[in-house]
Amino acid sequence: MQQKKILPSKLPYAGTTIFTVMSKLATDEGAYNLSQGFPSFDCSPKLSELVSHYVKNGYNQYAPMSGVPAFRESLAEKTSLIYGVNYDPETEVTITSGATEALFCAVTAVVYPGDEVIVLEPAYDSYVPAIDLNGGVPIFVTLDAPDFKIDWEAVKEKITDKTKAIMINTPHNPVGTVFSKADLDALANLIQNRDIYIISDEVYEHIVFDGEIHHSMMTHPQLQERTFVCGSVGKTYHTTGWKIGYCLAPKALTEEFRRIHQYITFSTVTPMQYALADFLKLPEHYLNLGEFYQKKRDRFNDALKASRFTFNPSKGSFFQIASFRNISEEYDYDLAVRLTKEIKVASVPVSVFYKEKKDDKLLRFCFAKDDEILDKAGEILSKL
Question: Which residues form the Aminotransferase class I/classII large domain (predicted)?
Answer without folding.
Answer: 33-377
